[in-house]
Design brief:
With 301 residues, this protein is of the alpha+beta class. It has 16 helices and 8 strands. Among the domains are: 1-80, TATA-Binding Protein (2-Layer Sandwich), CATH 3.30.310; 113-226, Hypothetical protein, domain 2 (Endonuclease III, domain 1), CATH 1.10.340.30. It is 47% helix and 11% strand. The protein binds a DNA duplex (13 and 12 nucleotides) through residues 120-121, 123-131, 133-134, 170-175, 178, 212-218, 221, 234, 236-242, 278, 281.
Length: 301
DNA sequence: GACCAGGATTGCT
DNA sequence: AGCAATCATGGT
C-alpha cells in the first residue's frame, strides 16, 4: 500500500464528480469524506480522496504500489489533462452559461471497458432510475464484491448465461440477447476492447456497430465514458436533446441536424459539451433523490 | 392510463 | 433509404 498525492494546476470540482457518480448505486463513495473506491481491471481496489478545493485541487490515491494502475486511475479521473483549454474554448460559445455553472467538471471514465459496454446496452432507452435498477441487479446477481466494492462479472461468465437468466431480472428478451452476444464476442477474443482502444473514433464505431445491440449511441458512449475521447456527441441521446430544449427554451426537442449544426462551434470538445449538457438537467431529477452516501453494500441511507 | 425514458433492430413501403 | 412497430417496465 502506498499513498500518492497529486496536485492539479487547473480547476477541478470533486463535489460535482461525487454528485454525478452518486447517480450510479454500484459505485462505492462517500460524499462527506470526499472519496471514491475504484476497482481496477484485475480486482485491486484504490481509494481516490479529495483533500483540496476546486481551485486548489489535491488528491490522495491510496492502494497497491503499481505505476501503471496509478496512471490508469489518473486517466479515469481526468487528472492527466487540463480542463483549462476546455473552459477557454466554451467561454465564447452558446454553451458558456452551463460551462460557468458546472466549472471544473471532468469526464470521469467508467472503471472498465467491458462494464462501459454492458452498462450502455442495459441503459438503452430506459429512464435512468430503472436503468440503474437493472445494472444493479445484473452486478449483484452475476458480479462480485472485492473489499466491499462491486465489480461487473467477466464476459465469459455472462456469455454462458441463458436469456431466461436475465429475463428473471426483468431484462427484455432482446436486451438479454445483446448482453450475452456481446459478452461472448469478447470472451472468445473476437472482440478485443483493449486493442480496439488503439484505433481512432470512426474505426472503433465502425467495428462496434457490427455487433447486435450496439448502435451509434452505445458506440459513442463507449468512446466517451470508456475511453474518455474528447470529441463525441451522441445525437440519439434523449437527455442531450432535452437539455438543449431547456437551454434554448424551445417547445420541441431539437432534431439531429439542428444540433449538429453547432458541432463546428463546439469541436474539438464535443464530449465536454455533452457532459455539461447532461449535468444541466441532472440536477433537476437527482438533486433530491440521492443522498450523501452509497454504502459498500449498496444501501442508500 | 397515456406517454416518455441517457436506443436498436426488424420488417414494411 | 426512410418510417413504424416492437421491446419491458418504471416514472410522471
Amino acid at each position: 500500500m502506498e499513498t500518492i498525492t497529486i496536485r492539479l494546476d487547473f480547476p477541478y470540482d470533486f463535489e460535482r464528480v461525487l454528485e454525478r457518480l452518486s447517480m450510479d448505486p454500484l459505485i462505492s463513495l462517500n460524499n462527506d469524506e470526499r472519496y471514491v473506491m475504484v476497482p481496477t481491471e484485475d480486482r485491486k481496489i484504490y481509494k481516490v480522496e479529495a483533500i483540496g478545493t476546486t481551485d486548489e485541487p489535491i488528491f490522495n490515491i491510496v492502494g497497491p504500489k503499481d505505476e501503471k494502475k496509478i496512471r490508469k486511475i489518473k486517466e479515469i479521473f481526468h487528472f492527466d489533462r487540463s480542463l483549462e483549454p476546455v473552459h477557454e474554448h466554451f467561454a465564447t460559445t452558446n454553451l458558456s452559461s452551463i460551462f460557468e455553472e458546472h466549472r471544473g467538471t471532468p469526464i470521469i471514465r467508467e472503471f472498465s471497458l467491458y462494464a462501459t459496454l454492458m452498462k450502455s446496452i442495459i441503459h438503452q432507452q430506459l429512464n435512468l432510475s430503472f436503468a440503474h435498477t437493472l445494472t444493479t441487479r445484473f452486478v449483484h446477481t452475476f458480479g462480485e464484491q472485492v473489499e466491499g466494492v462491486w465489480i461487473y462479472p467477466e464476459p465469459a461468465l455472462v456469455g454462458k448465461l441463458q436469456v431466461e437468466d436475465l429475463r428473471e431480472l426483468q431484462f427484455s428478451t432482446r436486451k438479454a440477447e445483446y448482453v450475452i452476444g456481446v459478452s461472448n464476442a469478447i470472451a472468445s477474443g473476437e472482440l478485443n476492447l483493449e486493442s480496439l482502444a488503439l484505433l481512432d473514433d470512426e474505426k472503433i464505431i465502425e467495428t462496434l456497430v457490427n455487433y447486435r445491440g450496439i448502435g451509434p449511441w452505445t458506440a459513442g458512449s463507449f468512446l466517451l465514458f470508456g475511453l474518455g475521447r474528447p470529441n463525441l456527441f451522441p445525437l440519439a441521446d434523449i437527455g442531450l436533446q432535452n437539455a438543449l430544449k431547456k437551454l434554448w427554451g424551445v417547445a420541441d426537442k431539437p432534431k439531429a441536424a439542428e444540433i449538429s449544426s453547432h458541432f463546428p462551434e463546439w469541436s474539438p470538445y464535443l464530449s465536454y459539451a455533452s457532459l455539461y449538457l447532461w449535468r444541466s438537467i441532472e440536477q433537476d431529477s437527482f438533486r433530491n433523490r440521492y443522498v450523501s452516501f452509497n454504502a459498500p453494500n449498496d444501501t442508500i441511507i
